[in-house]
# Entry
Amino acid sequence: MTEQTTQRPPGLRERKKLKAMRHIQQVALDLFDRDGYAHVTIERMAAEAEVSPSSIYRYFGTKEMVVLWDEYDPIMLQAFDDRLRAKDPISALRDVLTEVVTTAMFEQDEEFLRRRMSYAMEEPSIRAAMSRQADETAVDLRRTIAKHTGRDPDGLELRVVTVALIAAFMEAIAYWHETGFRDPLQDIVAGALDVIERGLRVS
Amino acid sequence: MTEQTTQRPPGLRERKKLKAMRHIQQVALDLFDRDGYAHVTIERMAAEAEVSPSSIYRYFGTKEMVVLWDEYDPIMLQAFDDRLRAKDPISALRDVLTEVVTTAMFEQDEEFLRRRMSYAMEEPSIRAAMSRQADETAVDLRRTIAKHTGRDPDGLELRVVTVALIAAFMEAIAYWHETGFRDPLQDIVAGALDVIERGLRVS
DNA sequence: CCGGGAACTGCGAGCTACTCTCAGTTGACC
DNA sequence: GGTCAACTGAGAGTAGCTCGCAGTTCCCGG
# Structure
């Protein structure tokens, strides 16, 4: 995510921070379930998680990011970059979005992911923050594609292709949520990408 | 936009309100130009426009909407609905987005539109609000399409098609802005929709 | 093993976007 | 022209978010 990943073995400091962040996120979601997102203040989250409000802002930046934050993004970008050597961009992205992401997500805790996504879809402010994040991801994505294929990273075509794919991915998540998480996310994502890839024959 | 449009000849009340909104928007943009979006408070806008802060919130809801608000949205939906009787959804949307919208927009004041779009693209919070608006438009859009074609309004395919088209449209605006408004918006929008319609042959 | 410096934490004060309520006013309609 | 609904402005209050400061904890070179 635009930011330089310090490629040094994580020390005690960083491990403590990550642990604290996961704990805060856990506690926050429990509070949201009880009282609703809007009625839980940062202050209460801080009290319940036994940290100071300042720390929550330092960790997450905004209240929305307490829900949205996770550790997948750099993993996904890396996986995409790797596959780009052997495959064309679309196939690589399909693979990453359908396989890598979903399996990486589910490794941790599928139920937890569903809870987070429910809030992300139902709370407009969180949804907006997610769009914003997606925009940044889209920029990284097309830079990476441009690097590997020599295409113009700022050309209209590449830009449109990228945002369309990201939008399809996000809509797949929305669909997953609205159908009560009935079908596997992988299948829905695959279906959504199919629609984009084959072009629009709707009538 | 989801809301019931009162189809009654606009009285003095409504005309005054619209006039006031346009005036506030004008004044606000001037202040933004001078001091930057973040440094202009609602209070200063209110003082400068000679209304109360309460009124600005009643009119626009949020600070971002002072920039984003305009009168095109219902016009666009109506135009789309009309064309849908004679054409397939994609062509109708192409027509509306490329012709109707751009001409309707330019009728008023192209320079003013550019200034608004500059803030919409450069201020992250405004951009997020714009995504949110686009989401709502997408819902209206696919409901309208479903009504005319009998397709499932909540099916994955229609959903993905719609958000992809909207995303392409927004990216066209972003591209227009980043290239210094060099080429006509119509052409860029047309190009963006082409990319989506023909499907993804990038490699 | 340790000492200096960097990074992180908690605290407090402060700003402003946004909400709600209430009293007063203005336009709509008969 | 009078009544009622809708709109306006004022004021108080909430909470997200920022900033600067003092104290603490970890990192790292010697």
